[in-house]
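Q: Could you fold this chain for me?
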Amino acid sequence: GAMLGIGLGLLIGKPLGVIACTWLAVRLRLADLPDGLTMRRVAIAGGFAGVGFTMSIFVTSLAFTDPATIGSAKGAVLVASIAAALLGAGLVRLFERNVTPA
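A: Sure. Below is the predicted structure, expressed as structure tokens.
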């Protein structure tokens, strides 16, 4: 249960949070995207946001007391962080493949 929650939180929750909050702030005119920043690039940043390795390990050590659960949770953080890095890299390849440097 904890491993699945950690994986889903890092791979789905963090990217969706970054994208949704940015979109909402722009939509409500609370913020503007800087020149050159598109929602596709925000999605790329969201994909990489799941690499939150340090804080996830810290929270894991606070949330659980059972050594086996802590070990499994730390493993899940590591696997999910690697998967998030791959997700971000995949989004770069998908969204930036036809972009010419400025």
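A (continued): The helical segments are 2-27, 39-49, 53-63, 67-96.
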